Amino acid sequence: MSLLEKINSPGDIRGLSVKQLETLCGEIRRYMIDCCAKNPGHLGASLGAVELAVALHYVYNTPADKIVWDVGHQAYAHKIITGRREAFQTNRTYKGISGFPKISESPFDSFGVGHSSTSISAALGMAVAAKLSGSDEKIVAVIGDGAMTGGMAFEGLNNAGAMKTDILVILNDNHISIDQGMGGLHSYLLKISTSETYNRIKNRVWDLIGSSRLRRGVQKFMFSTKMAILKNGSLFESFGFRYFGAIDGNDIGQLTTTLASLRNIKGPKLLHVITKKGKGYRPAEQDQTVWHAPGTFDPMTGKRNIPAPGTAARYQDVFGETLLELARADRKIVAVTPAMASGCGMNIMMREIPERTFDVGIAEQHAVTFSAGLAAAGYLPFCNIYSSFMQRAYDSVIHDVALQRLKVILCLDRAGLVGEDGATHHGVFDMAAFRPIPNLIIASPLNELELRNLLYTAASDAVQGPIIIRYPRGTGEGIPWRDVNFMPIPIGKGQLIRDGSDIAILTIGPIGNLVAEAADKAAAQGISVLHYDMRFLKPLDEEIMQDVCSKVSRIITVEDGTVTGGLHDAVSSYVSEHAPHIHVTGLGVPDRFIEHGSVKELRSECGFSSDDILKTITSTPAESC
């Protein structure tokens, strides 16, 4: 790494030749592969965007000029060349650097990201701020073709084009190849339309024509002619953007030349670049889905370190297989996901019943309201969205589902702490967010079998309106569930896990299994623990609450979610009204954002690891506070 080891900031690359830039890109790829082999991350997209990151920092005067990355899956090269080369070895590890751009981490990270489709709106805000302050800084938004499917991206395009803001949007397309003939024509037209001479002459012509009807006629003719040739750009031109491309996003020479030309063109512009996901690493090129986030692997052979299969299934597989079983029996069942078919397990139904399975792209709000429309028309939609992504559809859940009491089964995968993806992806706010909404049932299973039975119950006549079923990322408890007869779960009813008389622990979701272990240890110390798995946050099981309040003077709640607004608040509200003498201690995610690390490390940081739970059980109320 003769070049990379000398790169400590973007200023160090700006004197390099194109040939040296090509060498640097190769070194960055190799370094990225070596690091991600040990510390797994989002590798495929970043491998494809190496030249793009290098070219942007080569042409633009960052950090004075601002680059806003969408999501951040494509920003590893950006991190490596902006003073975080050595720190990249700690990527996504506890107390290490984040896997996503983050304002507090570096001045080169102009905006924090994690959820998609935000870059254009954020960049537009920065561009308008630059204009208001009289600054000449340039603003660039880099958005992937997947993120461009999100409604917020189009809202940003619409606003930016109408305002004639000086902004460059780079559409990083790593899925669609360019036809060779069309590609040559595109490249030819690109050279003309980005030529400084061409634009200077064009502006002079407009000035000479003035604001006459002739000018409007010439503009209309040129637009129609351009759109007849550049069909790909017509959509963006209709938003008021000048479309350039498509160009080879893995050609560093073409990228730097094009960006240098575009830098001096005012107004809203969109550059369409084609990159190859997994570029430069054959295993990642050949299986782009798996190598989006491959886990650890041998960097020389590409052999992935796949753990030996255990007895416990992943919750997403329990969901997927159960959904397919239910859909086979009921033709009214349909499935909806916003671009997470394989991640949530819905691809299992998609393979067998594709006509009733809908991947709507990265559009969570649309996914929920689309599901509401299906429900209004008499179908039974299972809408699966990651917990943290569901935050984007909050209004749709309230207005389009709950208010109309439409039966939409909202399945929240990745609920609770998710680990290395960090603060943007932890699904810790859903219970607190959705608990106040009328007409909603909120449930969480203790294990795989309960998830299966909750899905069955949700599809039955026992549920007449919307229901949320939340469950975590990863594997369950190893409880047999396949080919087990369905059993309905009474709505709003929890279950007794352990009887006791000294202290009560109320839990919701799989975290109850960790509590059961701590209760066993407490029993060995002579402490009698009464443990209930509540199953439902809403409606809260008041029979359990009455039983608990009649037996103990102290309650501990444990939840894999924010303590504020969740199970702790629900229990505390009941106790304050019916048994104010009882002391309630809440364990869960505290009132702050939690960064990245393993789930075990983060639970310990938040104070609800197995040891923390045991310590709280054996402490006095004053100590536990």
Descriptive notes:
The chain has 625 residues and is α/β, with parallel strands linked by helices. Helices cover 42% and strands 15% of the residues. The chain has 26 helices and 17 strands. Strands 7-6-8-9-11-10-15 form a seven-stranded mixed β-sheet, sandwiched between helices. Strands 1-2-3-5-4 form a five-stranded parallel β-sheet, with helices on both faces. It has a five-stranded mixed β-sheet with strand order 12-14-13-16-17, sandwiched between helices. α21 crosses α25. The two termini are 53 Å apart. About 5% of the residues have low confidence.
Helical stretch tally:
26
Distance between the first and last residues' Cα: 53 Å
Largest beta sheet, briefly? 7 strands, mixed
Quaternary assembly: single chain
Q: Which radius of gyration do the C-alpha atoms yield?
A: 27 Å
Please tell me what the overall shape is.
Answer: globular
Mean pLDDT: 90
* Helix vs. strand class: alpha/beta
Strand segment tally:
17
Helix content: 40-55%
Sequence of strands across the biggest β-sheet: 7-6-8-9-11-10-15
DSSP strand content: 5-15%
Unreliable stretches (pLDDT < 50, length at least 5) are 176-190, 219-232
